Input
Amino acid sequence: GAALDAAARDGDPRAVPFPRIRTENPLDFSFSGIKSALIRKVQEAGTSLHVADMAASYQSAIVEALVERTLLAMKKTRAPYLLVGGGVAANSLLQTRLRAAAAEHGFAVALPDRLLCTDNAGMIAAVGHSLLDKGTRHGLELETYPRSPLTDKSY
Output
């Protein structure tokens, strides 16, 4: 999100080659390979590490994957709108690329103000607060369902 954006600001996104993310299902995400590549490249660079170039190259590879999969999902669902949230939404390169993709492919994109682009934990806490306001209460026995939709009333 914002931290990577700041580190990459003066870097060359072509300076360090990073693998492009590929998964069996083209709509899935897996960043483990690219994270491992970053660790290896930082270790290899040692004291000659140019942080801005490394960050810009890493950011470029990640944003490319995010935009590519977003376009696939938009085409598959024929959704006219895209709402982007979470900490990654604070990244200016991602915002720029998503706006360009939306203009090129004919869908609307909504990006919150950078101050509202917070970690997903903050958004989940807001949902919890809303449920608490509605009288929904759970003790420590509450089961966790990491893929449960936020509209599911059973929790």
Q: What stands out?
A: The CA atoms of residues 139 and 155 lie 12 Å apart. The radius of gyration is 18 Å.
